[in-house]
Amino acid sequence: MGCFLFLITFVGTLFFSSIINLSVAVDTISLTQFIRDGETLVSASQSFELGFFTRGNSNNRYLGLWYKFDPSTVVWVANRKKPITDKQGMLVMSDDGNLVLLSKDKKIIWSTNSSWVLENPSFDYPTDTLLAGMKLGWNLRTGFERYLTSWRSAHDPSPGDFSLRIDIHGLPQFVITGGSGKEVRSGPWIGRQIDGLPLFSNLLYKAKFVHEQDELYYTFEPFNNTVKTHSVLNQSGTLHRLVWKTTEWSSLYSWPFDPCDNYAQCGANNNCRINKTPICECLKGFIPKAEDEWDTQGLSQSRKCIEKPPSDCLSREGFLNLQAIKLPDFNWYNSSMNIKECKAECLKNCSCRAYASSDVSGGSGCLMWFGDLIDIRECPPQFSWGRDIFLRVPASELGNFVI
Ligand SMILES: *[C@@H]1O[C@H](CO)[C@@H](O)[C@H](O)[C@H]1NC(C)=O
Ligand SMILES: *[C@@H]1O[C@H](CO)[C@@H](O)[C@H](O)[C@H]1NC(C)=O
Ligand SMILES: *[C@@H]1O[C@H](CO)[C@@H](O)[C@H](O)[C@H]1NC(C)=O
Ligand SMILES: *[C@@H]1O[C@H](CO)[C@@H](O)[C@H](O)[C@H]1NC(C)=O
Ligand SMILES: *[C@@H]1O[C@H](CO)[C@@H](O)[C@H](O)[C@H]1NC(C)=O
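That's the Bulb-type lectin domain-containing protein sequence above. Prediction below.
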């Protein structure tokens, strides 16, 4: 069941159910229906309930949506930035079809935009939870982005430090951002495949990556409506895929999955290899930067590897194939170049350090990387993602092979 149906259902319920039928004028909004704090609306499928809730010892009241079978799991909050501090809040349907949340003194605390309901009736402002049918991603025509933001704490739904977003510089990739930028990154999304995410085929839901002229997004649908599942970004920046198992939520996977998922865990020009010692290894053609030259801005940037001398461009005349890795960050993408043109183009430019095909089935599409190679990792044994990359190395590193 998609969110489209879902909102229409709520709107429908507001209009047609036998909730108190009144018409009250508040400023310019004329009210036809409302629910008060204490009352709730149940979706037609009986899955979700909309109403007011509170958390912890605070007096803050929020309009939210929760599972009917599990009211403790709030999946969406309307006024997360503007709590109501008493129990006099009221949700009304205005005559132009918008939902409006009003305080005791009839101030507008939150409202939907007409475009929200009429043009694209899905959740444009998700909270920390991605429900079936919700979109995570971009309206490429308007530049509008839908993304998740964690709660500040278990008792405070106001926006926390972490967000799950789709980064569309170059080929799209998932990122979890925190106070200091990227915390976790998937590899680029190539065809139906995404590197670096612990996704696997499952019998519960179908994940979809949609890239059309006007829209680019991720969404999912359960195979049947007995399956209750969603993704949630928790307050410390971990994304969990939860599935309801009879009496409780169980985590199917979480991301970051292991330390190699932490952004640039190993520093530049390294490969992060979980379960191997050392966990960080300089890529072929690179050597560890002397310890006393390590950058001091935190562990993630410290273990930088630098080019082996001689590091002049002319010596770097060949490419080495590294297999089954998460491709580095900051890709440069050209959809029309084939892999041969890609290689030739990379070779021409001294700052090009690597290239890869962007087409899993061998068609055209070229990815290139300039400068340091950031956030590469090997695929852990239990997953099967990973792509080939061609690293530009001195001829001396190639042995008998020149690819
Ligand atoms: C309504 O639209 C305005 C301007 O586009 C935006 O700032 C605001 O957040 C939107 N509110 C909702 C609830 O959609
Ligand atoms: C729905 O999917 C679940 C999980 O795959 C399965 O166990 C169940 O039998 C399915 N129910 C129906 C009615 O297809
Ligand atoms: C978020 O999930 C991670 C991984 O399961 C867990 O270690 C962490 O404690 C969770 N954070 C919170 C605030 O629950
Ligand atoms: C992609 O490559 C083709 C062929 O080399 C070139 O004509 C085109 O300008 C490139 N596009 C971009 C965006 O650089
Ligand atoms: C090499 O690539 C970089 C990054 O795209 C670009 O700024 C530079 O102009 C290129 N140099 C040459 C010689 O093509």
